[in-house]
Structures
1.
Amino acid sequence: MPIERVTTAVIGAGHAGLAVSCMLSERSIEHVVLERGEVANSWRRERWESLRLLTPNSQSRLPGFRYQGDDPEGFMTMSEVVEFVGGFAAAIDAPVRTHTEVTNVRSADDGYRIATSQGELQCRSLVIASGACNVPSVPVLREAVPSSIASVTAFDYRNPRSLPEGGVLVVGASATGVQLADELRRSGRRVLLSVGEHVRLPRTYRGRDVLWWMEAAGIWNQRYDEIDDVERARQLPSPQLVGSPQRTTLDLNALAAAGVEIVGRLAAVRDARALFSGGLRNQFALADLKMNRLLESFDEWALGASDLAVGPPERFEPTRAPEAPRLHLDLKSGEISSIVWATGFKPDYRWLDVPVLDRKGRLQHDGGVVAAPRLYAMGLPVLRRRKSTFIHGAEDDARDLVEHLARAL
Ligand SMILES: Cc1cc2nc3c(=O)[nH]c(=O)nc-3n(C[C@H](O)[C@H](O)[C@H](O)COP(=O)(O)OP(=O)(O)OC[C@H]3O[C@@H](n4cnc5c(N)ncnc54)[C@H](O)[C@@H]3O)c2cc1C
C-alpha cells in the first residue's frame, strides 16, 4: 500500500488545532486534523462535572466565530464548551479524522512520518496541538501515602461521590484546587487545603470581570519575547478563579470562612504523616502583593482610557493567615480518607520521536516554532502571548504560526 501523503498534519482537535485548521484552509493548504477521540475531547472526557469556564462568554472567541448568546458575562458549562468548539469545527468544515490516535512521529523524507491507530501518513509540515494538560502532574511524594488513603487526581475526580466518605486533603490552591476544595466543603466534608505558591485574583474589580481588565489593559496580549522571564511565566499556576453564575470570588479568605482548613505546602509524607511547611504568611504576602501590583496596573491603564464606565479603585483585605496552622496530619488517624492532587497538568509527548524535548520532557520552541523543520506547537502556556492557552488566545497565535508555516513550505 503506498503511504498516504498530506501537506500538513495537525495533531489534536481541541480549539487550538481547529484554529490552525481554519488558518490553513484560508490559505488553501491541504491538511488533516488527527484526533484520538472526538472534537473537544479534553472537555468531554477529562474535566469534572461542575466545572465551568473561568473565562467569561465574551472571551469565548475563535476565528470568525464567537459566543452569540445573551449572557456575555456568564461562564460556559462543559457541555456548552463542547457545543461551542464543535460548532466551530462544523462552521469551518475542519478535515478532522476522529478516533485516530497518533502513536509515533519521526523525521522522514524531508518531513514527518506519523503512525496512527488508523495507519501511517507522511506530511511535510506538522502542528502539535495535542494540549497542554494531557496528564496530571503529581509530586513523587504521592508514593509514600498509605494505601488506606484514596489518592485521586483532578483527572479522576468527577464529583464528591468519586471519593470515599470522610475528610479530604486537597493539595494545590490554583483554580482546580480552590474549586474542588469549595465543592467538597459544600458537600459537607471536612476539607484541608494545602497551599503553596498561588495567584490570587478577585472575580470582579471596579465593577468589571477581572479577566475583562486583563484583556482591556493589554496584559493578555503581551508577547512572549517582551516578557522578562518567559520560562517563569510559562510555569505560573492558574489564578484562583471560578466561573459561577453568582460571580463569586473564591480566594483563601472565602474558603477559610466556609470552613476549609488552610495548611502550608505539602513538604513530605513520612511514616504515614503528611508534613506541611510553615511559610504560609510569606506565601500569602507574596500573592497579595502581586495581586495589588496587577490592580495598580489596571488603575494606571484606566487613567489613560477615555469613556471608561468602571467604578472607583478597590483594595481587598489581605489574606488572613490562620493563628497556628497545623504542620502535620496523621494519615492513619481517620481524619481524612482521601487526597485530591490538584498539583497541575502537563503535556504527554510519549509518541514524539523527534529530538525536540528538553531534559524535563518539555517541548523546546521559540514562540511555537519548534527546532525542527516545519514543526510547530500550539496551545501551550504563554506560547506567543500571555493569552495563548485560552480559547480567545488561539486566533492570533494560529495566524502567526500558519504564516510561518506557509513561508516554510
Ligand atoms: C481544568 C481546566 C480548566 C480550564 N479552563 C479554561 C477556561 O476557563 N478558559 C479558557 O480559555 N481555557 C481554559 N483552560 C485551558 C485551555 O483552554 C484548555 O486546556 C484547552 O483544552 C486547550 O486547548 P487545546 O486545543 O490546546 O488542547 P485540548 O483541548 O486538550 O485539545 C488537544 C486534543 O488533542 C488530542 N490528542 C492528544 N494527544 C493525541 C494523540 N496522541 N493523537 C491524537 N490526538 C491527540 C486530545 O484528545 C484533544 O482533543 C482550562 C484547562 C483546564 C485543564
Note: The chain has nine helices and 25 strands.
2.
Amino acid sequence: MPLLLRHPSSLEHDTGPGHPERADRIRAIDAELESGGMLGWEVQEAPAASEEQLLRVHPAAYVERVREMSARSAPFDLDTPTSPGSYEAALRAAGGACALVDALLQGGERTGFSVLRPPGHHSEWERAMGFCLFSTVAIAARHALDGLGAERVLVLDWDVHHGNGTNTIFHESPEVLFASIHQYPFWPGTGALGDVGSGAGEGYSFNLPVPAGTGEAAFLSLVEHVVAPAARRYRPDLILISAGFDAHRDDPLGGLVLDTESYGKLARQVRSLGEELGAPVGAVLEGGYDLQALAESVAATMSGLAGDEPAPQAVTVDPLAEAALEVLGRYWDS
Ligand SMILES: [Zn+2]
C-alpha cells in the first residue's frame, strides 16, 4: 500500500500572519485527502530525523543554529521566519522523507509521499532561505546513498522555483542526477540551462528553465524527451520528486500555468519511468500556495503515482526540450 508520511508538528511551524507558507496548507491537504478516504494510502507518523541523517548534509553548528533561532522565534531572513515549533517541524519533515526512503528501499513499497512542512529545497548546507530550514530532499537522498547503500538517486524538482539548495549540495556529485524544471528568470535567480554541475558532477545537473506562461506541454516534453532518456542511461536506484505545486496556474507566487491534472500526468510519467527502471518513486512536499490548487494537485499526484493509468505521451518535442538537449546532449547522447 502506498505510504503517506505526516506529523502534527507541521501545524506548529508558525510563519506569522500573511505568510504564504502557512499551516493552512497542511490543513487544506488533510481535508482534501480525508474526504477521499486518504485515497487508500497507509498513513504513517513521520519520525524526527536522526542526528546522523541531518549531519550528512548540514554542519552540526547549523543544526544547532536552527534549534536556537526557533527557540527564540528569530527570522533567518524576511522570507524565512521561525517559531518555537519550527525546529521540531523541520526535523519531522526531514525524518519523514528519510522514513519514506526506508520504506521504498527496504520495505518493498513502490511509492509514497511525505507531506510535511516546512519545505526544504532552497536550504543549502548552512543557509536557511526561501521558507526552507533543512534541505529535506538532499537529506533523504544522502540517507539512501550513505545509509542504505543506493548508488544513484534521481531527483526531479517540479516546484516553480529552482531548487538551489539541492542543486548546490550535489553540484559536484554524480551520485545524484538533479533535474529541475522551474520558471526563469525568477526567484532565487539560479538554475540557468548552462549550469550543468561541476567537477565529478558535471553533466549531472539538469537545469531546465522555462519562461513565465509555460504550461503542461513543455513540462511533459521536458520529462519525456530530456529527463527520461538520461534516466534510462543513469539507472537510478531511487527516484525522488521535489513536489512543489506553485507552478499551478492559480498559484499566487508563480507565473506558470499547469493545471491540477497536469500533476497527475507528470506523476504518471515518473511512475512509468520508475516501473521501467525498477526504481521506486517517492514524493516530498515543497511549495504550493493556493490552498485549493495545492490540495487537489497533491491528490492528483498521489493518484498518478499509485494508479495504473498509462503515462501520457508528449507528442512533439517542445522547443524548450530541444534547447536543453543541445546543452545536455554533450554529456548524454540521446
Ligand atoms: Zn516554490
Note: The chain has ten helices and eight strands.
3.
Amino acid sequence: MADVVVLGAGAAGLAVAAQLKARGVEAVVLERGPGVATSWRGRYDRLKLHTVRQLSGLPGFAIPRGYGRWVRRDDLVRYLEAYAQRFKLDVRTGTTVERIKPGAAGWSLRLADGSEESARTVIVATGYLHTPQVPPWPGLETWPGELIHSAAYRNAEPFRGKDVLVVGPGNSGAEIATDLAEGGATTVRLAIRTPPHIVRRTTAGWPAQLNGVLLGWLPERIFNAVAAATARMELPDLRKYGIGRPAVGLKTRLRTGRYVPLQDVGIVRDVVAGRVLPVAAVQGFDTISVLLADGTSVQPDVVVAATGYGTGLRELFEDPSLVDETGVPLVHGGAPARPGLFFIGYDVTLGGMLRQAAIESRRVARTVSRLEK
Ligand SMILES: Cc1cc2nc3c(=O)[nH]c(=O)nc-3n(C[C@H](O)[C@H](O)[C@H](O)COP(=O)(O)OP(=O)(O)OC[C@H]3O[C@@H](n4cnc5c(N)ncnc54)[C@H](O)[C@@H]3O)c2cc1C
C-alpha cells in the first residue's frame, strides 16, 4: 500500500500526514468514516470548541478568522476538509482497519473487507475518545426506559416533554444538560459521582485554556491552590445546590485520571436557577427506577450516559503490552512504541487536545521522516 500509513483522518491523523508531506514523506491516511473529521460530524449540534480558535489549529494552516473565537462544530469540519485538500493528503475513506500485528514488511493491517495491507511505519490516530463507554450498571437490562450515550446525542428535540437524567458532569454531560433544559425537557437531572472542577470559559475576555497553557508548568501543589482559589472567586458556591467542592486538586486529577475541567457554558446558571438538578451518582437500575448512591431513586424517561470513552486499542492490537489498564498506549506522542509504530492524540492536557495533536504531529513527523530517509 504505502511505506507510511496513518490510521484515522481526524485532526491528529491529518496533521501528521501534512507534516510528513512537508518533510517529503507521502503517507496514506485510512479513515473508516465517509469523510475526514468523522468524529466531529457526529457530535451534538450546539457544540463549539471550548478551546480558542488561535490555539486549536493544525500546523501550516490556521483556522480562518471568520470562524470566530469559539469555532462551531460544522466550521471545524469545514476546516479539516480544507486542511486535507490544501495539503493534497491521500485519504482513503470507508476503510476500517480491524487488526494490526507485526508483519514481514513491518506491520500487517487487516481491513474490514477482509484484505490485508502492509506498511513499514504505522501511525495510529484513531482518537482518545474512540469507543463510547457505559458502566456495567446492575439492573440496566430490565429497566424499561431509554438509554443513549452522549456520543449519540444531537439536540433536545426528541426529549421535549421528557424527564431526562444525564449521567456525568464532564464537558459533554454538562452542556447536554443545558441543551435539554433550554430545549424543553420537563425535568433535567445531572448525576454526579465526583464533584467537577468548574472553570469559566473566559474571565474578562481571558480564556481558561490560556491559564492551562501558561501556568501548566507550576508545581502541582501551587497549581492546585491557584485553581481552587480562582474557582472560589469566580463561581458561586454550588454546595447548596448539590455540587460539592472537589476534594482533589485539578492538576492532581489531570495527572492521575487524565481529567480536564468542566468549562462553564451555562451549567452554573442552570443549576442556580433550578433548571438542572444535581443528584447523586447512579448505582444501578430496577424495574422502574434509577438507583442513586445516596439511597434515593428517580424515574426518568431517558438516561443520557455522558460516561466517557475507551481508546479501542486493545481490540486493534493483539499485543496487550502496548497499552496501560485504561487502554492508553504506554508510549505515545513522539517516540515509537515499537519499531515503526507510533501513537498520536492520546495526551490529555489543559492546553486542549487539538493543540496537543498539533505539537505531537511535528514530533512524530520529524522522527518518521528521519527513519524513512
Ligand atoms: C464533545 C467534545 C468536544 C470537544 N471539544 C474540544 C475542544 O474544544 N478542543 C479540543 O482541543 N478538543 C476537544 N475535544 C477533544 C477532541 O476529541 C479532540 O480535540 C480531537 O477530535 C481529537 O482528534 P483525533 O484526530 O485525535 O481523534 P478523532 O477526531 O476522534 O479522529 C479519529 C479518526 O479515526 C477514525 N478511526 C477510528 N478507528 C478507526 C479504524 N479502526 N480504522 C480507520 N479509521 C478509524 C475515526 O473515524 C476518526 O475520523 C472534544 C471532544 C468531544 C467529545
Note: The radius of gyration is 21 Å.
4.
Amino acid sequence: MEVRRMGPIGVEVTGVDVRSIDEAAFGRIYRAWLDCNVLCVRDQSLAIGDYLAYSRRFGVIEKHPSKSTRHPDCPEVTLLGANKFDADGKLIMDIYRRGAEGFHTDGAYDEVPFKATQLYALAIPSRGGDTHFASMYAAYDALPPALKQRLEGLVGAYVYGGRRKKTALLNPEDRDRKPALHPIVRVHPETGRKALYFDPGKILRIEGLAADESDALIEELEGCMIQPDAQYRHQWRKGDIVIWDNRCSYHKAAGDYPPEEERIHWRVSIKEAGAPQGATADTM
Ligand SMILES: O=C(O)CCC(=O)C(=O)O
Ligand SMILES: [Fe+2]
C-alpha cells in the first residue's frame, strides 16, 4: 500500500483492495485521512455491499434526507448524477449541479452533523466534474485575532435549504425541520484542532445577534472560508473512492461537465459511531 500526500490537504492511497484491508492498514488509512482532510483510494472495483462494508469502518451510515435520490435497491446509498433529465428531456439543474452552488459542509442541518461523506465513482465524464476541497482549520487559523475572539461562543442555526429555502430535492413533508445549532468555532473531536465551521448555503442566522448584525457577520465569514494554500482539487477517475471530513473541510462540485455525459457516484453520509441518528428516519 502506498500513501501519498497530494498537497497541503488531500492524500492518495494506491495498491490496495478495500475489500480485504486488515486493521493495521485501515489504521494507516484512517490516520492519513484525519491528517489530510480528504482521502482518495484509487482503482477499486466494488459491489454495493463491499462499498457499504468499507464505509462502515469509518462510522455509521445515515440515509440522506433526499429520498428521491436514494439508490432504489439500497437506501443507505444516494445516487449522484442519476436521472438528471426530466420526462421532456430537460436537464434538472438541482441534480446536475448538486453540491455546486458553493463551498459547504454536509449535514450542518443535523444536530449531529455528518462526520464524513464518501463517494465512489462509477462513471466519470471526459472533462470537468472535479470536486474542490478546502480546510476549515486553515480558515480558522487565518482569521484576524479580533474576529477569532468575537466568534468564540457564537452559535449558528442551520437548515437544509438555508436562507434561500433550496429544498427541491426533499419531499414536501421533510422540508420544515427545526434548525440545528453548532458553534462557529468548532473543535474537531478527534484531532482537537479548531475549525471555522460554517456553511453559507445552510445557515439561517447567528444566534443572539440582531438580524442585520447576523447577516453582516455571515457575509464576512463567507469571505474567510477559503485559504488558497489549503485547497485540493480532485480530478476523478472511475474506481476512485473519496472520503472527506465534514468537521474540518469545505467542498463543492465544479458542476461544469458536459451534461450529455454520465457522472455517477454512490454517496454515503457517515456519522460518528454512538452518535444519535438524525430526525430523518423513514417514518417522517
Ligand atoms: O459531486 C460532487 O463532486 C460533490 C457533491 C456534494 O457536495 C456532496 O456529495 O455532498
Ligand atoms: Fe456536499
Note: Residues 99, 104, 106, 251 surround fe (ii) ion (ligand 2) (CB under 6 Å).
